[in-house]
TrEMBL record, chains A, B:
Protein name (database record): Redox-sensing transcriptional repressor Rex
Organism listed in the record: Streptomyces aurantiacus
Domain CoA-binding positions: 89-190
Taxonomic superkingdom: Bacteria
Subunit structure: Homodimer.
GO molecular function annotations of the record: DNA binding; DNA-binding transcription factor activity
Amino acid sequence: MATGRTHRTATRSRGIPEATVARLPLYLRALTALSERSVPTVSSEELAAAAGVNSAKLRKDFSYLGSYGTRGVGYDVEYLVYQISRELGLTQDWPVVIVGIGNLGAALANYGGFASRGFRVAALIDADPEMAGKPVAGIPVQHTDQLEKIIDDNGVSIGVIATPAGAAQQVCERLVAAGVTSILNFAPTVLSVPDGVDVRKVDLSIELQILAFHEQRKAGEEADAQADAVLAAEAAAAEKAGKGPDGDVPAVMPA
Amino acid sequence: MATGRTHRTATRSRGIPEATVARLPLYLRALTALSERSVPTVSSEELAAAAGVNSAKLRKDFSYLGSYGTRGVGYDVEYLVYQISRELGLTQDWPVVIVGIGNLGAALANYGGFASRGFRVAALIDADPEMAGKPVAGIPVQHTDQLEKIIDDNGVSIGVIATPAGAAQQVCERLVAAGVTSILNFAPTVLSVPDGVDVRKVDLSIELQILAFHEQRKAGEEADAQADAVLAAEAAAAEKAGKGPDGDVPAVMPA
DNA sequence: CCATCTTTGTGCACGCGTTCACAAAGACAT
DNA sequence: ATGTCTTTGTGAACGCGTGCACAAAGATGG
Ligand SMILES: NC(=O)c1ccc[n+]([C@@H]2O[C@H](COP(=O)([O-])OP(=O)(O)OC[C@H]3O[C@@H](n4cnc5c(N)ncnc54)[C@H](O)[C@@H]3O)[C@@H](O)[C@H]2O)c1
Ligand SMILES: NC(=O)c1ccc[n+]([C@@H]2O[C@H](COP(=O)([O-])OP(=O)(O)OC[C@H]3O[C@@H](n4cnc5c(N)ncnc54)[C@H](O)[C@@H]3O)[C@@H](O)[C@H]2O)c1
């Protein structure tokens, strides 16, 4: 082992910050767009603007991958696309199963951007016997009975859950037992999984609620004073009354 | 508690951390489930488990809202549901428009959890003239021409973008110009908006890529050594060659 | 009224992520 | 070859978020 060889491995393989990993797909998307326009090189400033981030952050992110830029010039677009793709594991094919082919599951199955980056829909799975055999997005839906076999046969390690919330944990357990180690969950539930299994969730409702919070803050900056007085009175009354017998808790304010 | 009148306002109205805001909907969901089971009180430990977070974190989060717990007992479920709802701005009705009624937009329109928490689908908007008038989820789709009028008439401040990526920025600008100040973007693009407008994005592709990264790491912990040797050779060759004349850059592996 | 026991609310320390600011690297012109 | 000019890569400072650990609060029982 030569002297300078170890440094690279140590730099790369050891802990890329999670925040950086989450931004790599963003950079990759911007770079792909540049690549399609046959742009040969790009500066950190330009790329950062395209990805919607700070240029210093972008440079630091790239520094975790290695020194792929050229000072005074910038980054070679094609080369960087390859490096990031490789780092993210997109140079290999990832078979994915979608479980729960309802409104959302069907939309996901039809989603083109799915296959565009190394992800291949290996199977669509639903518990409804009526759906078995019916093609969605050109792929026949299979019954839940087949779940374990499908995962095993296709070497699936990534699963997408789009079932109702009530079924999600159970589906999750079957997926994990069958060998899935990464789950993307669309159902509004907290999934509990053993160590070594990654779960990411996409939750529309939570996103809207966060927006509503900021929206309320924006709207009620000046009107807050008066509203606050009313609410304080209410709250004080409620506090005094304790947990009253009937519906004294205001719950959701009617229109 | 007669003395602490001022303290409360000061504590609450000033900056709730963003990370806390993002967790409030999670707590709210867990609390709502408890409420439906008529559970009167809950400890921070129990609630934290239900929400999938650390109990100390939960207590600190709640401390930003005020002192709503009772030591030795826990938190009053109904009261807390109300306080969090109010804090998030869910005690009022938020009319929402969805723009782009394709696969995803239609799924969103059909989503029940949408209306369940103060969010009301005020209108569905699409650029396709064919779709105009057709009902989706019981709501007739309206043409993009009407966008400004719809937003104005309904006092919409939250918009959801589910159009193809190419149209997203343009749609975004029209929404903002019409008065929308919060946007939930499903299109895989970086939206640029003026100050004062909040954008949150939901990006399936990014989530999958993050999962793939961790998946690759899990799989290649021991096989890394040999693969690394090969890749190092490749990289070294590529480095030496610089940006070669033809397609020496591997780019994304074709299907 | 006092003791005990449970659970909150928070001070504190630590680690991660962000941003600034600049020295070093290298392209390019002369 | 040398100087200039651009842009990277990163050291260092800072701020935010997390989690520990515990004192204070208050319920409950005697
Ligand atoms: N539709 C949306 O836009 C949207 C948005 C956010 C979240 N979600 C969530 O995504 C999930 C799916 O939403 P949807 O609108 O598609 O619901 P849906 O009712 O249309 O579809 C659910 C599907 O899951 C299937 N299913 C039920 N139990 C199953 C099981 N045990 N195994 C396999 N399949 C099972 C059903 O047969 C059905 O086809 C829900 O949890 C919903 O809350 C949906
Ligand atoms: N389907 C999914 O599961 C999924 C997942 C993640 C992201 N996305 C993204 O969400 C977006 C929509 O996906 P989809 O599968 O529903 O696509 P789609 O093609 O089925 O639907 C797009 C709809 O937008 C409408 N539209 C186009 N331009 C418009 C404009 N300027 N104004 C108003 N409406 C316009 C079209 O008429 C069409 O009805 C895409 O950007 C996609 O990348 C989709």
